[in-house]
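User: I'm putting together notes for a lab meeting next week and I want to include a structural view of one of the chains we've been expressing. I don't have a solved structure, so I'd like a prediction I can at least talk through. The sequence is below, exactly as it appears in our construct file.
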Amino acid sequence: MRRFELLEPTSLAEACELLAADEEARLIAGGTALLVLIKQGVFRPETLVNLKKVQGAAEISYDPERGLRLGALATIHQVERAPVVRERYPLLAEACHVVANVRIRNSATIGGNVAHGDYQSDPPTALLALDSRVELTSRQGRRELPLSEFLLGLYETALAPGELVSAVLVPPPPAGLRGTYLKFTTRSSEDRPTIGVAAMVRQRDGVCAEARLVIGATTPTPVRVHDAEALAAGQPLDAALLQRMAAAAGAAIEPVDDLHGPAEYKRHVAQVLARRALTACLEGGPA
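Assistant: Thanks for the context. Below is the predicted structure for the 287-residue chain, given as structure tokens.
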């Protein structure tokens, strides 16, 4: 590994000043992705800004009106185990629980996971289904973007120069909205997802009052399947309708060919998992 300068700010303001002073400087938090790229010679930074000593940046809090605030330095394991996440956002807890292995979950951060823009990752799919936003901080101040607008493509995000992810914001879910996250891998259970599906359903008077369906890990960014959601609006969710929604999910994605499988194979698996996830929501799975 090549030598680099390591800077260790103790506040977000200090970190932003360091980024503004050196446009080539790069951030590191858990390091589970970045250090691999450095070791492989894919990325050769001269300066790294280590965020681990930033005070208060890993806090997880909840407000009934504003919802959940995940400090960017909260680890995946901390998010998974946080009582408020398990109680109010079990879909997110599920998605975090199946990230790699416990060693990675104890190192990787939720902010780093989002900022990396890796299409084969579990949390962004669940976060998109939950209508999450990303809080971005720079020397100029703070701004928020919907996660759908923040994730632009393969390892590409809307982060501006000198900006960092300071938090992930998740609004309060409507009462009665039940959800689940399903992951399929072609190798070990600890592998990155070949397909990830987040489904959420809210029923009222025997018909669907709201449905959300997101397919992840197959395309450069997770895909919200609006056509499937529209099919369900005001309809009883029987087996035939769930199958039509699953077919809409397959039609909505343009899978990436990679070592996990060809596009058509992924499209088929996405339909199978979409139907299973929607069924699980109706059978009283995690809310």
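A couple of points you could mention at the meeting. The domain at 178-282 is CATH 3.30.390.50 (Enolase-like; domain 1). The CA atoms of residues 228 and 248 lie 5 Å apart.

User: Perfect, that's what I needed.
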